[in-house]
Amino acid sequence: MIYPQNSSHKLGFDDIRNAIKDLCMSEMGRGMVDKIQPMTNFEQIDKFLRQSNEFKNIIQNDQPLPIQSFYDIKKLADKAKLEGAFLNEEELFQIYLTLQTAFAVIKYFEDRNGIYPNLEALFEHLPIEKSIVRHIEAVLDAKGKMKPNASRLLAELTGAIAKAEQEVLRKIDQIYKHAQGNNWVADGSLTVRDGRVCIPILAENKRKIKGFVHDESASGQTVYLEPEEVFNLNNKIRDLEFERRREVIRILTELTNQLRPYVPILYSYHSFLTKVDFVRAKSLFAIDLGATMPKLLKDTQIKLRNAKHPLLLMASRENGKAVVPLNIRLDAGVRIVLVSGPNAGGKSVAMKTVGLLQMMIQAGLLIPADEESEVGIFKQIFADIGDDQSIESDLSTYSAHLSKMKYFTEHANGRTLILIDEFGTGTDPLFGGPIVEAVLEQLNHKKAFGIITTHYSNLKVFANNTEGLENASMIFDNVHLQPLYMLEMGKPGSSYAFEIAQKIGLAKHLIDLARTKISAQQQKVDSLLVDLERDKKDVLENKIALEKQKRKYEQLLAENQKQKAYYEENKRNLLREAKSEAQQIIKSANKLVENTIAEIKNSKADKSKTQELRAGLDKAFKANENKPVKPNKPVEKAESIEVGDWVKLADSENFVQVLEVAKDNLIVAFGELRSVVKRNKVSKVSNKQVPKAVKHFGTSSYTESAANFSAEIDVRGKRGEEAVAEIERYLDRAVMFGFPSFKIIHGKGDGILRKLIRNYLKNYPQVVKMEDEHVDRGGDGITYVYLS
After folding, report:
1. How far apart are CA 200 and CA 196, in angstroms?
2. pLDDT tens figures, 196-240
3. For the purposes of burial, counting CB atoms within 10 Å of the CB of 272, is it exposed (0-12), middle (13-18) or buried (19 or more)?
4. Which of 304, 348, 369, 368 is nearest to 483 (CA)?
5. Half-sphere exposure (CA, 13 Å, Cβ side) for 687?
6. CA-CA distance, 371 to 384, in Å (whole number)?
7. Are 416 and 378 in contact (CB under 8 A)?
8. Of 350, 373, 398, 226, whose CA–CA distance to 297 is shortest?
9. How much helix, strand and coil, in percent to the nearest 5, is found in the chain?
10. How far apart are CA 658 and CA 668, in angstroms?
């Protein structure tokens, strides 16, 4: 329960909804976003969060969902449900395309059975009813138009109309040429008036041809005449067309009757795709924010790590300002945090961040905070933000605040989160202070949770001495007189009223005069708070410096350990090779000694021979002693490859970017293609070695490209080679995204561009068929291309 109702708007939840709506593909999805509200059921919230997290994983790491055409088939099913009603060709084709999308999405998840269990629950027990598609395919062609042979009578009527139209064209062409030969015709060619093909005749010659005048030019010099012979043929065609229309309606009525039993399952398909669109939009919004799924708890507590306000994050992209993360914890020990500090120091933003993220979590939305964050579930969220004075209700600002305080104290409990901005403002602090202190004591007694911002000193003292409450302050740089927007738990903060007045340029004598008008005790307290703030800033800076030193020391220690391991390994290799070489030398020496002894024996101790052998032995020993020791090859360290690095494939020399590292395997991306390669099949390269074109192509978003891809390309007005080059790029993307067909708008003209394009497309094996658009929608000025 949210109280008051406008709290959602004041916390920014309405803006979150609007941002998600902009990411929906359908009006049905946007309708579901409008209904997003915080929930209190743990299982339902957990399911919604996990669905968004799974879809986020699909967008970032898996093949894109095959969502192409998606229409509101619920309205069409409602129409089909009525006896005697029939769906027209366009409506039936919308059902057909929507079912194709639904079947493709169901197949997508069936191929990944068990990987996305929460998303699979969206279509649990929903069958793929192919018979609906087959019924429609029996009547409509690939463009959604009725097949000429949908029935025997329709085929006969279509043939008869075509034959009659040819006869009309032949006859009127004959009459037109005869009139031209007699100079009866005005400038211009055959034209259509009131749906009839007419000849432009000079007014003075209109009685020379029997027929009916349908129109005349503005000057009256030209009349548009339909010859009598053609008139009768056209009437015959009109009768045939009426008869054909009746047959078309009969076929559509029969087809709608066949689909009527499937209305319930059409509702199910509509609901399934609407939910998919809804979850997809939430996940895209989460990716845009860098949002994650924190740990959801059943009890009431909050632990936010590096949390950021979503709307500030969205605004930071425009103004380029960094958003300072928030770390805060509410639990059984500290249920209410009293935030103090200077104006414009970030107190209200910190409070609103907690409130908005809590509403988002309970609405099933991922939040911009670390995954280690923990968020519980509150049954009630009460908020007092801004000025709610009302002339109609005769409420002043303070009265409006008191009315809310009355409601809070009466209805708060241990599962209530209370958010109050500038607690106690609107009246004399001398009397307002004790009232808000009493309210705070009552809320604490009821075990409520909350974030409260204030400037009241008595509340800071009360929070310091009361169990369940804790002071917190927004850190302020009192040297440069600027806020740092960082929340510090445990100590109250000064309002820095005099310092801020000094910074904006208020006269010094006015500030000094103001200092004399506050009590000595209050001045002493404020000075102590300023000193404390300064000390905290110094401690924080020292802490940051120590953390840097610690990280540097750990880095040096790690490097030292690596070098030590490297030299130890090198030492072991040197000893191993030295021992091996020594053993070899000993073996060679033993063999040489044995051979020398054998020679001496054979020479029967001949003195000269013995001296010669001894000299050879000495020479061999000296040669081994002077033999240089081969330096051991240093052990090559394995090249460190991380996510985001660029590597070069050994077999193709292509540059690819690393998306994921899994032991000895790397998941890499080349443009919009994903692949798995062995680590030892690539070599790491620097960013400078990668061409800019490859970088741009490699970092493009496949999901976004597929979502924005249009099945239509317009090349009118382009030169032949320009048009062909553009179509080549477009065709590659269409094949990559799996589009079954697309159309090329090239215009009619002399037909040169049309012929050039079609001849070029014939060389592509993926192109299975090309044909003109329907005459009513552009005819041979548009080419439909069908892909395998």
Report:
1. 12
2. 888 898 988 888 888 888 888 888 888 888 888 888 888 888 899
3. middle
4. 348
5. 5
6. 29
7. yes
8. 373
9. 55, 15, 30
10. 4
**C-alpha to C-alpha distance for 701 and 672, rounded to whole angstroms:** 7
Of the pLDDT bands very low, low, confident and very high (cuts 50, 70, 90), residue 336 is very high
The three-class DSSP label of residue 607 is helix
Which is nearest to 477 in space by CA: 572, 541, 426, 524? 541
* Edge-to-edge order in the sheet of strand 665-670: 673-678, 665-670, 655-662, 646-649, 682-685
pTM: 0.61
pLDDT tens digit string along 284-325?
A: 999 999 999 999 999 999 999 999 999 999 988 777 788 889
Residue 23 has what DSSP assignment? Answer: T
pLDDT of residue 143 exceeding 70: yes
Bridging pattern class, strands 741-745 and 712-714: parallel
Pairwise CA distance, residues 434 & 423, whole Å: 12
C-alpha–C-alpha distance, residues 647 and 650, integer Å: 9
Of the candidates 452, 449, 371, the one whose C-alpha atom is nearest the C-alpha of residue 417 is: 449
Annotated binding site: which residue ranges? 341-348
Mean pLDDT over the full length of the chain:
82
Place of tokens 């209904």: 35
490: left (phi over 0), alpha (psi -120 to 50) or beta: left
Task: Extract the tokens encoding 383.
Answer: 């908020």
Per-residue pLDDT at 205: 86
Angle formed at CA 571 by CA 570 and CA 577, multiple of 5 degrees:
90
Q: What is the pLDDT of residue 16?
A: 95
Nearest to 496 by CA among 706, 345, 328, 613: 345
Q: Which amino acid does the sequence have at 546?
A: L
Do the Cβ atoms of 262 and 132 come closer than 8 Å? yes
337: left (phi over 0), alpha (psi -120 to 50) or beta: beta
Binding residues for ATP: 341-348
Please give the structure tokens belonging to residue 760. 């070029």
CA–CA gap between residue 155 and residue 257 (Å, rounded): 22
- Dmax over CA atoms of the chain, in Å, equals 150
Contact 367, 357 (CB under 8 A): yes
Tokens of 494: 């000064």
Burial level of 374, CB count in 10 A (0-12/13-18/19+)?
Answer: middle
Q: What mean pLDDT comes out for the span 89-116?
A: 93
CB atoms within 10 A of CB 74: 16
Q: Which helix (H) or strand (E) holds 676?
A: strand 673-678
- Is residue 140 helix, strand or coil? strand
Q: How many Cβ atoms from other residues are within 10 Å of residue 136's Cβ? A: 21
Structure tokens at 559: 């490097």
Task: Tell whether omega for the bond before 631 is within 30 degrees of 0, i.e. cis.
Answer: no
